[in-house]
């Protein structure tokens, strides 16, 4: 019995290494069996299919990560600090193994079927998503308070994840295999992490300003409508109308300015989301 358990565990260890290094499609059960030193029939006996083996390898790790998502969501601190904590959390997970970022992109994000399974299993299953439930509640409360716009929590989580993963995907040459100087590596990660936090906060502040413009525009319309209704012979009508027109134009003009800021912010997202420096560059 102990020998069988050892073989089963070894299959899981070897499968994890090969899946991370070669991906799901690049790994065969024949190769796993050869590396383990067992008959391929044993793999099918324990796990039936390669897909089931894949989930048996990574499901416990995902559950562990989802469980610990609770930690950054300390309700005693404000929303934006919690978002910064979530970014720190993601970075911490990806720093454990640089193979994780490309693996997540190739095997989860770029695989709709597997992503749907992941979402249904960990984000929609009440028995396994208490942390995500807290995250949803946090977003809902902030939106109701008017501090952020209403949004799907999964969209915000995916935005944070995508920005974080991109740091490791476009990491400097030698980053993952240990050739990169450790001090430069640390500087690179700290710098990118702080940039992502800054960009997320800038984007949220911009959303709030756009929402405020909607309210300002609505408030300015009523006085303008009344001004247009004044009789032409009304004393001071022209001055009243001019003031109301200026007030009514303020919100659209601000929206135009915010659109320009948004374009620049999107450029910044693009540049920093795909930014890659050489590990030999001391100015990291």
Uncertain runs are: 276-284
Distance between the termini: 54 Å
SSE order, as H and E?
HHHHHHHHHHH
Q: Any idea how many domains?
A: 3
Major sheet description: none
Total helices: the number is: 11
Residue share in helix: over 70%
Radius of gyration: 26 Å
- Shape call: elongated
Tell me the strand percentage band.
under 5%
Detailed description of the structure:
With 284 residues, the protein is mainly α. It folds into three domains: 1-53, Homeodomain-like (Arc Repressor Mutant, subunit A, Orthogonal Bundle), CATH 1.10.10.60; 69-169, no CATH class; 199-273. It is built from eleven helices and no strands. Helix 1 crosses helix 4 (50-68), helix 5 packs antiparallel against helix 10 and helix 6 crosses helix 9 (153-169). The longest helix has 47 residues, at 182-228. The chain is elongated, with a radius of gyration of 26 Å.
Concise synopsis of the structure shown:
This protein is an all-alpha fold and about 280 residues long.
Defining traits:
single chain; 284 residues; mainly alpha; Arc Repressor Mutant, subunit A; 3 domains; 11 helices; elongated
Fold blueprint:
Layout: H1 2-22, H2 29-36, H3 40-47, H4 50-68, H5 79-95, H6 100-109, H7 112-123, H8 130-144, H9 153-169, H10 182-228, H11 237-273
């Amino acid at each position: 019995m102990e020998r069988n358990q050892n073989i089963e565990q070894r299959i899981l260890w070897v499968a994890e290494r090969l899946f991370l290094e070669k991906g799901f499609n690049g790994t065969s059960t024949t190769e796993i069996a050869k590396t383990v030193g067992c008959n391929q029939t044993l793999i099918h006996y324990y796990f039936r299919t390669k897909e089931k083996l894949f989930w048996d390898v990574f499901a416990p790790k995902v559950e562990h990560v989802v469980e610990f998502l609770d930690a950054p969501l300390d309700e005693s601190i404000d929303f934006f600090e919690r978002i910064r904590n979530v970014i720190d959390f993601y970075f911490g997970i990806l720093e454990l193994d640089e193979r994780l970022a490309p693996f997540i992109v190739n095997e989860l994000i770029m695989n709709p079927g597997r992503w749907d399974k992941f979402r249904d299993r960990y984000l929609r299953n009440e028995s396994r998503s208490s942390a995500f439930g807290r995250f949803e509640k946090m977003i809902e409360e902030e939106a109701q308070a008017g501090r952020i716009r209403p949004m799907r929590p999964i969209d915000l989580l995916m935005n944070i994840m995508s920005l974080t993963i991109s740091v490791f995907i476009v990491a400097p040459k030698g980053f993952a295999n240990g050739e990169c100087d450790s001090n430069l590596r640390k500087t690179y990660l700290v710098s990118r992490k702080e940039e992502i936090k800054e960009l997320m906060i800038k984007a949220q502040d911009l959303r709030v300003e756009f929402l405020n413009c909607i309210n300002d525009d609505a408030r300015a319309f009523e006085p303008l409508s009344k001004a247009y209704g004044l009789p032409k012979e009304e004393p001071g009508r022209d001055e009243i109308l001019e003031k109301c027109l200026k007030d009514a134009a303020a919100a659209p003009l601000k929206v135009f300015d915010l659109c320009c800021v948004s374009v620049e912010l999107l450029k910044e997202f693009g540049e920093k989301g795909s930014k890659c420096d050489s590990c030999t560059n001391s100015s990291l």
